[in-house]
Write a structure and sequence with these properties.
about 0% helix, globular, four-stranded antiparallel sheet
């Protein structure tokens, strides 16, 4: 059974520092399903719609949203921001974007794979330079899990482990990842 949450015409924002009290319904003109939302601070926030390659940005705490980035029919999967305005988003086709100015501009640092189509599902940055991406390459209609690490904020990536037992769809907030040598 597929569960779809239709929030295309409303977005919930809190009056009290994003606490669970005092929610307000804010109507938007966003017509596609909202997949994820994240705020950098009290005013600057982002959301993306699923399967459209569209990122929306707010600079007034979610009262209004404008289209910030568009990439045809792309499936974004995860985003993460730091309070400095540094942020990343990843998704289908190895798409990986970075912003250093709270989304005013985005750098395309997408990953490529010679083995097959690259799908990025999970992402976690420990700080502004060290981060991990999880996903899979699609080879002959089969998914081969993959994990990458960066030491420079996502400019370059190194494959740290190729033969994972299963596909990682989310990387939890951790202090360290230990990969044993086979």
């Amino acid at each position: 059974m597929i569960f779809r949450l239709h929030v295309a015409w409303m977005l919930f924002v809190s009056y009290q520092g994003f606490s669970q009290n005092g929610w307000e319904i804010i109507r938007t003109d966003i017509t596609d399903g909202i997949h994820d939302i994240e705020f950098v601070n009290d005013t600057c926030g982002f959301l993306y719609t699923y399967g459209t390659g569209t990122i929306f940005r707010t600079s007034n705490g979610g009262m209004s949203w404008f289209k910030n980035f568009q990439s045809d029919s792309l499936y974004f999967e995860q985003m993460q921001f730091f309070s400095s305005g540094l942020g990343w988003i990843c998704g289908e086709g190895g798409k990986f974007l970075r912003t250093t100015n709270c989304g005013l501009s985005w750098s395309d640092l997408s990953l490529r794979s010679d083995e097959g189509k690259l799908l990025l599902y999970g992402m976690y940055f420990m700080n502004d330079t060290i981060g991990y991406l999880s996903g899979a390459t699609v080879i002959n209609r089969k998914m081969a899990p993959i994990l990458f690490k960066t030491l420079n904020g996502g400019t370059t990536w190194t494959r740290v482990y190729k033969d994972l037992l299963s596909r990682l769809t989310h990387i939890p907030h951790v202090r360290a990842i230990h990969i044993p040598h086979p």
